[in-house]
Predict the structure.
Amino acid sequence: MTEKMPAVPVIAIDGPSASGKGTIAQRVAEALGFHYLDSGALYRLVALAALQADLGLDDETALAALAKGLDARFGGTEIMLSGQNVTAEIRSEACGMGASRIAALPRVREALLARQRAFRQVPGLVAEGRDMGTVVFVDATLKVFLTASAEVRAERRYKQLKEKGIDANIRTLLRELRERDQRDSARSVAPLQMAVDARELDSTGLGIDEIVRQVLDWYRQKVAGL
Ligand code: C5P
């Protein structure tokens, strides 16, 4: 029997830092003509806004209020915060680390829920993050958990930074990735974990095209009720 399809389909792609979720999710969204949600960018935006406002990264009440009132706009590949283009700035390790800290605060997560769900619009959405399949879109049509070894992820991040002309040290990157994995997996709210109904995809040794094809195949199988 064909499973009942949710009204607006969602493909949820979760996984650890630098597992390639962003690239894969964007490519899948493009192939299907779906919207795209980079949920990590929202946490990064809250971290950046907090740093700019000199707020402590453990002041849950103030951070939740900040998250709720965040003036964030996503236009194509550009991300704006209070009218300022912060596309590059939120990718810094400082924002990544800050995001990982504030993401452990339940009221900050709660404050961002409605904003994330508002991205679910026809004809469909590809959402990537840590808890897309476990919390934000539990009824997603397809849930993918994308992994890769920490070494491969650190290497990918190293190459990305180098390409942007940013100086990096692979050992430091590996240590920071492991720290972030540890914090994201150990937190009590919405920890990074595979949804019971997710399909795991280990991208170590796979090319982007192969991964995208696999996700699209799984999605088409789901839609066909296979
Ligand atoms: O994916 P990205 O590295 O941009 O996310 C930055 C941080 O935001 C992650 O380390 C994680 O702590 C947090 N995050 C989260 N839940 C999401 C997306 C990101 O907790 N859905």
